[in-house]
Amino acid sequence: MKRRISIAATILLATAISAEAGNYGDFQPTRSVVYKTIGDVELKLHIFEPEGHQSSDRRPAIVFFFGGGWVGGTPEQFYPHAKHLAARGMLAISADYRVRGRHGTSPFECVKDGKSAIRYVRAHADKLGVDPERIAAGGGSAGGHVAAATATAAKLNEEGEDLSVSPRPDALVLFNPVYDNGPGGYGHGRVKDGWQEISPMHSIREGMPPAIVFLGTKDKLIPVETAKRFQQKMREVGSRSELMLFPGAQHGFFNYGRGDGSSYRETLSAMDKFLESLGFLKGKG
């Protein structure tokens, strides 16, 4: 059954995600670069490079987007994932983007920023040492929405950007993602008449990148039936779509520092296998 999520619930979600964050002192990026400037706001990509990485390399890359209900959150959420993948040989990035709590923005600006981030990585692939045809997008909750929407929201582009550079990722790694913004879906009241464009569920088309989704069966925000419907629609257009359900797990179960860490490790392992199958990572042997 679809539910309308109140603004209070959204704020509680953002707070919970921040509160459950682990100690990120051991997970620090190699460097950070500004990918977009809006007024006096500078948005950065926090880059984790493999050891010995050079700009002449052509490594696969992934851009993660944090959760927080489009209200709050921090790029640090995916620092552990990024460091892990960098150690495996990928260029891994945790991106900042505008949110309502800090910038007074709507979900539409979040998606525009997400597309700008992917465009930046692809346009600067030569300088970053990235293969422009192997760029994945990942994220959790609202960040999962941003990641998915970079592949589906065709009309949401920042004014003045080079639209010849594709923002479409070549793979999706989604952790309890928000991907139904239709009537009764999460965030519908905030996107209103623009829901069909911003809702990944309603913009699935041929050519969608392969996706893996991680979801807890006790998630109160993202129903299991929503995840199954997304998977079915993806398969109907000929795209690979994997769904990994975690019995009894709630929203945010996958985060580093959550519980005993078993869900974090299990999702990390499954993410690795998915990326290995696409040629983004080499098997451990």
Describe this structure in words.
This protein is of the alpha/beta class and 285 residues long. It has one domain (7-277): Rossmann fold (3-Layer(aba) Sandwich), CATH 3.40.50.1820. It contains 10 helices and 8 strands. The protein has helices spanning 7-19, 79-87, 100-103, 107-123, 125-128, 142-152, 188-191, 195-198, 224-236, 262-277, and strands spanning 31-38, 41-48, 59-65, 91-95, 130-140, 171-175, 211-216, 241-246. The chain has an 8-stranded mixed beta sheet, sandwiched between helices. α4 (107-123) packs across α6. It is globular and about 50 Å long. Mean pLDDT is 92; it is low at 1-8 and 14-21.
Radius of gyration of CA atoms, rounded to a whole number = 17 Å
Taking the alpha carbons of the first and last residues, their distance comes to 44 Å
Largest sheet, in brief, is: 8 strands, mixed
CATH superfamily: Alpha/Beta hydrolase fold, catalytic domain
Adjacency order of strands in the biggest sheet:
1-2-4-3-5-6-7-8
Task: Kindly identify the CATH topology.
Answer: Rossmann fold
Q: What is the level 1 CATH name?
A: Alpha Beta
Q: Indicate the multimeric state.
A: single chain
Helix content: 25-40%
How do the SSEs run, as a string of H and E? HEEEHEHHHEHEHHEHEH
Query: Looking at the structure, what is the overall shape?
Result: globular
Number of domain modules: 1
Determine the strand fraction and express it as a percent band.
15-25%
Provide a count of the helices: 10
